[in-house]
Every structure is written in structure tokens, then in C-alpha cells.
């Protein structure tokens, strides 16, 4: 079987596919693939390994219904029209679990960096603005014993909760569509309604999928209900918060700080007002960007394609 890979992946993924006997072609990532080019490249292959967030919409699936499977290299699949995939009879798989700790590390890093204005402070040094020792200016806030609110206590949220509890003895509250009783036991998390999550969190971290229900859930009304000392963290999807409302909430002091690994749109433009704020840190969507995690993701995606080769169901299929 032939596989088309949309961007370079770690060698371990290529080796896994080659050992299984696949014929592979990898797109040169310096040249951005348009939808037409992707559709063209898929015409004479059986399988697609879709790296990154390139959209797979109904146009794609009507042109590529011959594909026997698509392996994504992400846990999120909001960039894929799953109804169209199912209608076309194309199974799609994702890469859950293997990126949970790495993504939670980025949430933890943002939480700490925002709380101590780390990037603003580092930039002062970089820009030659390291002033005399000032006792009361631009102070951070501490995390010890504070309340961490998690919106979406799944694998990534749980990993963050464990770190926050071990490092800072944080009290964990969470809001999900349904209760996660196993996680409640592991981190002594308390289930609360959305309003309580907003009102009681000192740090509120988002770990949910982007769906019509979660889109812009963190908007002006939500930020108004949060503590003025609160830090908002989003490492899930940029559309879950409303960026203009977030900017305004920070500007007016409705909340204290924000750490984002995801924005809407991506990439964020360098002149974005959020980047000028002292208690804001923004990363370029690097939750899973470690050698170990990206290697595991490539192997997992490859194994899903191997399952198709063997006539089996993809283990991580999301449109079963
Ligand atoms: C994921 O796996 O969903 C990450 O956000 C990368 O897209």
C-alpha cells in the first residue's frame, strides 16, 4: 500500500511504515501544501498521514473517498469534517495519551511564567531596561495553596492537576460534561458547575476539545465572573476563548493574566496587543513539541495505518 505524508515526521515513524512494507512519499514541508495539491497527491495513494492542522473538509472527502484510512498526528480533530469522512467511508485516527504529559508541561510552564511575568521580565533584560531594584513594581503572584480550576478534566487536565498539586499543593476543582470520578480520587478534585469554576479558580486552565458547545465559552461574560487576580490558561484550541474579550478583560483588570499555547487565528500576528501585556505569555502551539512525544505520535499514527494494511480496525479510530 502507498502512504502520502504531508510533512516530515521523526525517522522512527518512517521506519515503522517501511518495515511494514509501505511505499512512502513525504511532502517537502518548506512548500505549503494547498488543498488542491493535497487532493492531487492523494489520488494515487491508499492512505494519508496528515501531519498538523491542515483542514480536511467535505470537498477533500468527496475527492478522496478512495482512501482506506487517514492517520492524524494530533489528539484534536476539529480540523477534520468527521461526518464527511464517515459518509465517504474513510476511517480517521488520532494520537491520544502519548502527548498528555508534554501538553500539561506547557500548561504548567505558562501558569508559572505568567504568575511571575517571566517573559516580560526576560524582555526587560533583553531590551536593556533592567532598572534599579524596585520593591513594589511589576510584582508576580504565588501559586502555593491556590485553587486550580480545570475545564475538561481528561488525560491532559489530570496530568496538569498532578503537577500543580505536587509542586504547589494546589486545590483542584473542575468542570466537565460528566464527572470523572477516577480523576477525582487521584487528585482529590472537586466537581463544580461552570459558574463556580469561574468564580473560584485562581488559575483556570482549558483542556477540552473544540466543539460548538465549547467555542467562545470563555467570553466577556465568563471573564467578568472570574477573580480579578485570576490567570487564564489555554493549551487546547484558540477558538475556545474569545480573543477580543480576553484582551479587554486583561486591559480592564477583570482578570490578572493569561497564558496561551493556542490562538485564533494561528499564527498570532506579532503586533497583537496581548503580546505587549506584562502578565501574558504566548507560545506558538508547542504542546506536543518534544522529541520523545513527537516520536511516539509518529509511531502511533503509523501503527494505525499498519492496522488498515492488516485489514484491522484502526486502534485510535475517531469515527467508528
Ligand atoms: C493536538 O494534538 O491536538 C495538538 O494541539 C496539536 O495539534
Automatic annotation (TrEMBL):
Cellular compartments per GO CC: cytosol
InterPro entries listed in its UniProt record: D-isomer_2-hydroxyacid_DH, D-isomer_2_OHA_DH_cat_dom, D-isomer_DH_CS1, D-isomer_DH_NAD-bd, NAD(P)-bd_dom_sf
A GO MF label: NAD binding
Catalytic activity as recorded in UniProt: (R)-glycerate + NAD(+) = 3-hydroxypyruvate + NADH + H(+); glycolate + NADP(+) = glyoxylate + NADPH + H(+); (R)-glycerate + NADP(+) = 3-hydroxypyruvate + NADPH + H(+)
Keywords: NAD, Oxidoreductase
D-isomer specific 2-hydroxyacid dehydrogenase NAD-binding domain ranges (all copies): 109-287
Major enzyme class: oxidoreductase
EC number: 1.1.1.79, 1.1.1.81
Record domain D-isomer specific 2-hydroxyacid dehydrogenase catalytic: where: 3-319
Source organism, top-level taxon: Bacteria
Protein family membership: Belongs to the D-isomer specific 2-hydroxyacid dehydrogenase family. GhrB subfamily.
PANTHER family for the chain: 2-HYDROXYACID DEHYDROGENASE YGL185C-RELATED, 2-HYDROXYACID DEHYDROGENASE-RELATED
Protein name, as recorded: Glyoxylate/hydroxypyruvate reductase B
Amino acid at each position: 500500500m502507498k502512504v502520502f505524508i504531508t510533512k516530515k515526521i521523526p525517522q522512527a515513524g518512517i521506519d515503522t511504515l517501511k518495515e511494514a512494507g509501505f511505499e512512502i512519499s513525504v511532502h517537502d514541508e518548506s512548500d505549503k501544501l494547498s488543498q488542491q495539491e493535497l487532493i492531487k497527491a492523494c489520488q494515487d495513494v491508499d492512505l494519508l498521514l496528515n501531519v498538523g492542522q491542515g483542514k480536511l473538509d467535505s470537498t477533500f472527502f468527496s475527492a478522496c473517498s478512495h482512501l482506506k484510512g487517514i492517520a492524524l498526528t494530533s489528539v484534536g480533530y476539529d480540523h477534520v469534517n468527521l461526518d464527511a469522512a464517515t459518509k465517504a467511508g474513510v476511517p480517521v485516527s488520532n494520537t491520544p495519551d502519548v502527548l498528555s504529559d508534554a501538553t500539561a508541561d506547557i500548561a504548567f510552564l505558562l501558569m508559572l511564567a505568567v504568575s511571575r511575568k517571566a517573559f516580560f521580565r526576560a524582555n526587560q533584560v533583553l531590551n536593556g531596561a533592567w532598572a534599579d531594584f524596585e520593591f513594589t513594581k511589576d510584582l508576580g503572584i504565588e501559586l502555593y495553596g491556590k485553587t486550580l480550576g480545570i475545564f475538561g478534566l481528561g488525560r491532559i487536565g489530570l496530568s496538569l492537576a498532578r503537577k500543580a498539586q505536587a509542586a504547589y499543593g494546589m486545590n483542584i476543582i473542575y468542570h466537565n460534561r460528566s464527572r470523572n470520578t477516577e480523576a477525582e480520587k487521584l487528585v482529590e478534585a472537586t466537581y463544580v458547575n461552570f459558574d463556580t469554576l469561574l468564580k473560584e479558580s485562581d488559575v483556570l486552565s482549558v483542556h477540552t476539545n473544540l466543539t460548538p458547545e465549547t467555542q467562545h465559552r470563555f467570553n466577556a461574560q465568563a471573564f467578568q465572573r472570574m477573580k480579578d487576580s485570576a490567570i487564564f490558561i489555554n493549551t487546547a484550541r484558540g477558538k475556545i476563548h474569545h480573543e477580543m474579550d480576553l484582551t479587554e478583560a486583561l486591559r480592564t483588570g477583570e482578570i490578572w493574566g493569561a497564558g496561551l499555547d493556542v490562538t485564533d487565528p494561528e499564527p498570532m500576528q506579532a503586533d497583537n496587543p496581548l503580546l505587549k501585556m506584562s502578565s501574558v505569555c504566548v507560545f506558538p502551539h508547542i504542546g506536543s513539541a518534544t522529541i520523545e512525544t513527537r516520536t511516539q505520535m509518529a509511531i502511533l499514527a503509523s501503527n494505525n495505518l499498519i492496522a488498515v494494511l492488516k485489514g484491522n480496525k484502526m486502534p485510535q479510530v475517531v469515527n467508528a
